[in-house]
Amino acid sequence: MHPKNSFLFVSVLILAVLILTPDNYAAERGFDDKEIRIGSWGPQTGPAAPWGNIARGPGILFSLVNEEGGIHGRKIKHFIRDDQYNPAQTKAVAKELVERQGVLAVTSGLGSACVLAVKDYLAEKKVISVGMCTGAKELVYPLNPYLFSCFDLFGDEASVLTKYVVDKLKITKIGFLYQNDPMGWDALAGAKERMATYGLQFTAEIPVEPTEKDLSSQILKLKTSGANAVIMQVAPTPGVVAVKTAAAIGYKPQWVSADTLGDMPVMFKITGGLWEGVITGGKTVDPNGDHPLVAKYREATKRLTPDEPFTGFFLAGIMFAEPLVYTLKKVGRNLSNEAFLQALNSVKDFQGVGPKITWTPQEHQGVDSTRVYKCGPNGSYILLQDWTSNELTKWKKK
Question: Which of 143, 262, 274, 334 could bond 280 through an S-S bridge, CB–CB 3.0 to 4.6 Å?
Answer without folding.
Answer: 262
